[in-house]
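Reading a protein record of the kind used here takes only a little practice. Think of the row as the fold of the chain written in a discrete alphabet. With that in mind, consider the following protein and its fold in token form:
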Amino acid sequence: MISETLTIAVDFDGTIAEDAYPKVGKAKLFAFETLKKLQEKGHRLVLWTYRSGSTLDDAVAFCKENGITFYAVNKSFPEEEFDPKYSRKINADVFIDDRNIGGMLGWGEIYQTLLNEEAPIPPKKKNWFGF
């Protein structure tokens, strides 16, 4: 289990939610459960996304509706002011992104890797037969 506090940068489209840009897609399985647990353990979450303006506002609102408020959005810390003279690269210990080499790990695997715990199993939904 990770004992230090990490700053974790998380992409939105294709990572937290299904890619439906500029709309907000459906939440990815275990995404919000994992993000909530990481915050409970004291890790800082930074939303790091291509989105800006109203599409960024939509993503932030979607995350807030699902129980996640980020430490910072598209910056390393809340008070940071963007200056075009400098790179937009942020300072984070871990990046979670669907564009990783090898693709996106599933959120269950991310949960297990970062928290060293089994991911919770969601309740099984009944099919249209009622089973």
Summary: Helices lie at 31-40, 53-65, 107-115.
